[in-house]
Amino acid sequence: MNNLDLSSRTTSADEKRLRNSTATYGLIAVLFHWTIALLFIAQLALGYLMSGDDVDPALQFNLFQYHKSIGFVVLALAIPRVIWSMLSTKPHPPAGTGRVAHIGARLAHAALLFLTVAVPLAGWAVVSTSPLQIPSYVFDIVVIPGLPLEISDASEALWTDVHETLAYLAAAIVLLHVAAAVWHHVIRKDVTLKRMMPLVSRRKSAK
Ligand code: HEM
Ligand code: HEM
């Protein structure tokens, strides 16, 4: 009986560490955040570098394949992450955060959640509409079929514009987002960045 009680207490403490509370982000949100953030920033850099005019064509081909592979991984992680985020409690802003700053942060988070799905989807549309029809592999493991869209130069040009515009819009929001995180940590010295860190104890701050 005692054992049963103990195991149910452990489960509930573990659950608290995994899920968000009004005080902090849970481990699942933290792992989603940093995995997607690192891959997304790498993709912005890779996309920019591989699209340069003076890149060797053989290297450029390989970089495109890596860009597509990593992009599909981001998409596969971003969809469950959006659902998890929508179902989760949102940690309250740290004491002293103004209303405008709070609304601004919420809008930026919503935009970033949307863009981590929309940017790779638009990239997928680029390769699906390209008359070249180069197969898209995820690291030579699985082939991803094209989206059911019109295949033509005009359609490819349109989706290329959408992909680029959304990617650079995301880059601008990420810059503001990172600046805000640094400002909270260095100037305001509050818990904003710490509660998104994987090694900070969640048990104490979880409510
Ligand atoms: C995490 C998601 C992604 C990000 C952040 C991203 C970002 C970028 C960026 C910044 C560029 C350079 C735009 C330019 O300056 O010309 C680019 C180009 C490109 N991306 Fe992505 N991308 C992502 C996912 C994907 C996916 C999933 C695919 C395809 C399956 C893809 C296909 C392409 C292609 C084909 C180009 C070259 C377009 C051109 O002809 O200029 N991207 N991407
Ligand atoms: C070095 C880069 C980054 C840092 C330091 C950082 C920091 C943070 C911090 C401290 C929070 C919690 C904010 C709060 O409680 O109000 C947060 C949340 C969030 N961040 Fe970042 N971030 C970075 C990169 C990114 C990137 C690249 C993306 C997406 C492309 C992103 C998307 C989000 C989202 C959507 C949230 C809301 C929480 C959630 O739904 O999981 N972040 N970030």
TrEMBL record:
The chain crosses the membrane at residues 25-49, 69-87, 107-127, 166-187. GO terms for molecular function: electron transfer activity; heme binding; metal ion binding. Residues 25-198 form the Cytochrome b561 bacterial/Ni-hydrogenase domain. GO terms for biological process: respiratory electron transport chain. Signal peptide: none annotated. InterPro entries: Cyt_b561_bac/Ni-Hgenase (IPR011577), Cytochrome_b561_oxidase (IPR052168), Di-haem_cyt_TM (IPR016174). Its main location: membrane. Its cofactor is heme b. One of its GO terms (cellular component) is plasma membrane. Keywords: Cell membrane, Electron transport, Heme, Iron, Membrane, Metal-binding, Transmembrane, Transmembrane helix, Transport. It is found in: Cell membrane. It is a multi-pass membrane protein. Pfam families: Ni_hydr_CYTB. Belongs to the cytochrome b561 family. This is Cytochrome B.
